[in-house]
Amino acid sequence: MSAEGGRGPAEGVDNVLTALADPTRRRLLDVLAAQGDATATTLADGLPISRQAVVKHLAVLDAAGLVSGARVGREVRYVVRPAALDTTARWMSTLAADWDRRLATIKRLAEAAEREES
Amino acid sequence: MSAEGGRGPAEGVDNVLTALADPTRRRLLDVLAAQGDATATTLADGLPISRQAVVKHLAVLDAAGLVSGARVGREVRYVVRPAALDTTARWMSTLAADWDRRLATIKRLAEAAEREES
DNA sequence: ATAACACGCAACCCACAGGTTGCACTTGAC
DNA sequence: GTCAAGTGCAACCTGTGGGTTGCGTGTTAT
């Protein structure tokens, strides 16, 4: 186990957002998704940063539940995990809908008020 | 006008993600969405930070297209803008689906290979 | 057995995001 | 006309996120 000990979606969304905020991390995810499998070392020499940097990024991604690594012999294979991403996508979508709803309501009220005073 | 001069969704998504990564900024958005309307000064004394801090956050949110401000007399009214958020939500959703697809393919191949060698 | 490869840990560096304070400039109220 | 409210701009401070290097530890190959 690595992340998520219950506690509702809010916590997770937070981690996912901060994780995705970094471009390097997004590139790592892209490569991982494309290859389906990769070690920190492998990923490192596909990017202009050291292995340690990659390791740190993977740690962040893992804490967000976006990635998970399993030891295979002397190396650690990392894989992408869609669940957390999907959760966050839904959260965001709901939020957008909520904003829309509120804006619509406000607009309606404004028009009503305008009609009132004429 | 404030943000977005064409250039495809990628750019925008980047800004939105970094904007949403900060908890203070998310709170600001919540308050804005709830009130439908607010000035930097108003927002500031609802939070434990200075007006200037709020102004900077609003600038970031505006650059991401999540918010827009209009001058009304001596104050500037800020409003929430769902469009950018919605775009990002879709992007994320698509990405999640993409990951799922790839993982499914890989699993299928693995099973095929296993069946092969037995 | 030993060399090479991959990982884990720790110390360290530095740019910059988030925050503050102070002051000048408009705009509205009285 | 004058005072207060609200904004805009700039300088400044500080923690930390992203990065590096160095070294010790396991694991596989020869």
Shape field of chain A = elongated
Mean pLDDT of chain A: 91
Backbone structural class of chain A: mainly alpha
Oligomer: homodimer
Strand count, sense and barrel status of the largest sheet of chain A are: 2 strands, antiparallel
Radius of gyration of chain A: 21 Å
Greatest chain-chain contact: A-B, 30 and 30 residues
Helix content of chain A: 55-70%
Poorly predicted ranges of chain A? none
First and last CA, distance of chain A: 64 Å
Summarize the helix and strand pattern of chain A as letters: HHHHEEH
Total beta-strand segments of chain A: 2
Strand order of the biggest β-sheet of chain A: 1-2
Strand content of chain A: 5-15%
Distinct helical segment count of chain A: 5
What can you tell me about this protein's structure?
The structure is a homodimer of 118-residue chains. Chain A has 118 residues and is mainly alpha-helical. Helices cover 68% and strands 10% of the residues of chain A. Chain A has five helices and two strands, in the order H-H-H-H-E-E-H. Chain A has a two-stranded antiparallel ribbon. In chain A, helix 1 (8-20) packs antiparallel against helix 4 (51-63) and helix 1 (8-20) packs across helix 5. The longest helix of chain A is centred in the last third of the chain and has 36 residues, at 82-117. Chain A is elongated. The termini of chain A are far apart. At the A-B interface, helix 1, helix 2 and helix 5 of A face helix 1, helix 2 and helix 5 of B. The structure holds a DNA duplex (30 and 30 nucleotides).
Concise description?
By secondary structure, chain A is mainly α.
